[in-house]
Amino acid sequence: MGFLSAFDNWLVFCGKPQLMGLMQTAMDQGLRWQLRTWNKTNPTPLTNANYLPDTEYMIHAFKTHVWKGKKRWIVGNVEKSGFDHPTVKPQYVMVDALQCATNYGQTVLDCYMGTGSTGVACMTLGRKFYGVELECKYFDIACRRIEDAQRQDALFGREDAYVEVEREQLRIEMA
């Protein structure tokens, strides 16, 4: 989790096993932190004879908190995305999380972009967005989704859309 030390405001989705480490990382950086949760009203009940969690955790570490609303939880359904990705976050979750963690015009970095839910939420909220994704198929889906969101904003005359999609991929040699 050393890469987080470069940032004084970060939000990480995680499971129970990662909570303590992320809280400690925040404290080691001298940051305050807030635990937020996404409580799923329709979780997948059973996979491989194990129950899947109905709660996802978010650790938000910060120097200055944004406080757009004071709730610390998000409650709602897991939506079927159709993107064939194991952890797609619904737009309402990402919009709520970003409103808590960022202000209009600020920059958001998603190091595990997946299918682009964070980028689309950034379009909706007027945030600058940078995303990184290793899997080519998810990168392409994310670019299409973000480009579609840009066209939607242009359709309604929004000129403050900050996301610029550059379809540049880096090849990483795994040794």
Give a description of the structure.
With 175 residues, this protein is α/β, with parallel strands linked by helices. The chain has two domains: 1-78, 3-Layer(aba) Sandwich (Rossmann fold); 88-158, Vaccinia Virus protein VP39 (Rossmann fold), CATH 3.40.50. It contains four helices and six strands, in the order βαβββαβαβα. 27% of the residues are buried.
Briefly say what this structure is:
Helix content is 30%, strand content 20%. By secondary structure, the chain is an alpha/beta fold.
Which characteristics define this entry?
2 domains; globular; 4 helices; Rossmann fold; disordered C terminus; 175 residues; two-stranded parallel sheet; single chain; alpha/beta
SSE blueprint:
Elements: E1 9-14, H1 16-28, E2 32-40, E3 55-62, E4 73-76, H2 91-101, E5 107-110, H3 117-125, E6 128-131, H4 136-155
Helix pairs in contact: 2-3, 3-4
Rg over C-alpha atoms, rounded to the nearest angstrom? 17 Å
Give the CATH level 1 class of the largest domain: Alpha Beta
Number of helices: 4
Q: Low-confidence segments, ≥5 residues, pLDDT <50? A: 169-175
Quote the distance from N terminus to C terminus.
Answer: 21 Å
CATH architecture type of the largest domain: 3-Layer(aba) Sandwich
The level of helicity is: 25-40%
Strand content: 15-25%
Q: The CATH topology of the largest domain is what?
A: Rossmann fold
* Most strands sheet: 4 strands, mixed
- What's the total number of strands? 6
Order of helix and strand elements from N to C terminus: EHEEEHEHEH
- Order of strands side by side in the largest beta sheet? 1-3-2-4
Large-scale geometry = globular
User: Based on helices, strands and strand pairing, what is the structural class?
Assistant: alpha/beta
CATH homology-level superfamily of the largest domain: Vaccinia Virus protein VP39
Average pLDDT for all residues:
79
Domain count: the total is 2
